[in-house]
């Protein structure tokens, strides 16, 4: 499952040329502070392709759960345990670990060659941080195993089968250690300009979960899926180790550990780690709130929320791949003091990810029932489950732009590798709204009320983070960003209406989804062109000759 060295954008001939120009050996690959748009586009496309594959397998995992167990007490019990894996993935792979370590590794790479005595800051950073991290993660995993009954009672006090959820939670607790090590590897590789192996981790995890479901589902029930989470975490580490070893093994030997006040320790101060972890936990607490409130609803409500979120979050996950690729560039620009380049990078990313997720929102709003029917209405998953999940998904999708902007904006706050508490305050304000609105709305609208409260809370957080940029973060020009984002919002509204009208006559779910996707995409892109979102006309005009040359060159080689 290792990544071929030549397939990664960071291993391209251009990267080799950069290394040679800098006098750096191939094993000492660094991520340049200024990279070409071609490199970023290639890295984003490769990462997105692997992420799409992982997301498709994630849907396959949910389909397997729905097929074997439907949407009832068993899946509710597993999904309470899955909260541990979700939290670990967010805290240790997708967000927390990346926010801390990508700027730290980027700063270490920027200082390479400038450290007195010729020692390598990257090796020093690993030596100072990895052993402590392993001990902390192992202790946390053991604590969750021991306290699993209490954790289940806190997350879902009204769950019908708490003992099953406890068994599953003890199995998934191991992922705290394995996901943490996988996240460490991912952060180090991304800072070095390598994105393929980190993007393949979700693919590895879902392959193992699906395999254990089919292999052990009949005998172990949902415990088989929980075992798959434990084994999948090990494979997530294994797919990254070869690529990481190639980059670290050829670097100079480790220098003596820096003094507590030295530059190499500065990116990993306790205040920075605490501010990042609390922010990510506060954001993940939205899931805890939803599971807690939904546990009092009829059996299956937690499952309906879970399936709705998994599908709705696909556009967000894909759009944020742009930020995953550009975050090391942003951190390197901040480390080098180039705030103008950092501001342009941030503003461009906000508009681009906003456009991408709004296209996905329009598709979901237009075709929600048909999408759920196509994906899940098999086996024990009934038409009533489809209707409940689709209606919940449409409401949840209203907050998807807020979720995406929060994911993009928070990177600018932590890109300098310094502690900042404003993101935690903004997230806490949104969580308070989520809790209050959810407690009020759940008795009126059920799962849809929980989804609406989530959308309201995260939208408030996104607004606060956007307004808080400047002295606390990279100085983003807020009016310009808001004006640019308003254009694709209008395009998405029109496209969603057009897609719903075009898909309605088709009774076949595949046909309805296909027609809806095509019509939404056509209308959205036409309006993006007409409104000239993010200088779309100029970008396309520049890209067209390049694409024509690539096609012509390919045809000539084909002869």
Automatic annotation (TrEMBL):
The organism's place on the tree of life at top rank: Bacteria
Membrane topology annotation: Multi-pass membrane protein
Region described as Disordered: spans on this chain: 1-28
Keywords, sorted A to Z: Cell membrane, Cell shape, Membrane, Peptidoglycan synthesis, Transmembrane, Transmembrane helix
Record's keyword annotation contains Signal: no
Entry annotated with the keyword Cell membrane: yes
Cell compartment(s), UniProt: Cell membrane
PANTHER family per the UniProt record, alphabetical: LIPID II FLIPPASE MURJ
Protein name, as recorded: Membrane protein
Protein's organism: Streptomyces incarnatus
Native organism taxonomy: Bacteria, Bacillati, Actinomycetota, Actinomycetes, Kitasatosporales
